[in-house]
Amino acid sequence: MSEPYSVRVTVRGYETDVQGHLNQAVYINYAEHARWSLLQAAGITQAQLVGRGVGPVALETTIRYKRELLAGDEVDVTCAFDWSGGKTFRVLQSIVKADGTQAAEVEAVGGLLDLRARKLVTDPSEIFRELAKEPELFGF
Q: Whole-angstrom Cα distance, residue 101 to residue 92?
């Protein structure tokens, strides 16, 4: 498998809690930002997904906090898809400080929702392959 996709984010002061740490909910925002950035880099837009009649859905998210993040810290948020077949896929992500220290791991289970039937599509990888101009970003 190639290196995971990565996007850099700077922790903003308004994202921190009273202790000065990055608020726990913002880790999910960073992970989501990296996932949508990967789709964009692969050439997939929200309009294309809707036009195809599907939308990505998060089914489960687990965050493992490793080190604190403070306002001004720069982090790289990685994103790698794990295709095991079936209706769901896993997204493995790491939030790493600029000095290489891992701040958090995020693991999510997702799927593609058929917007008319309101059910998961049978093979989401097929649709991502079909729409992507850069399918290798999904690990294909």
A: 17
Q: What is the pTM of this model?
A: 0.94
CA–CA distance, 34 with 10 (Å, rounded to integer):
13
C-alpha span between 39 and 44 (Å, rounded): 5
Confirm if 56 and 110 have CB atoms less than 8 A apart. Answer: yes
Bridge-based pairing of strands 54-65 and 74-82 is unpaired
Handedness of CA 30, 6, 67, 57 (dihedral sign): positive
pLDDT of amino acid 17: 96
Task: Give residue-wise pLDDT tens across range 26-73.
Answer: 999 999 999 999 999 999 999 999 999 999 999 999 999 999 999 999
Domain 5-138: give its CATH code.
Answer: 3.10.129.10
- Name the amino acid, one letter, at 125: S
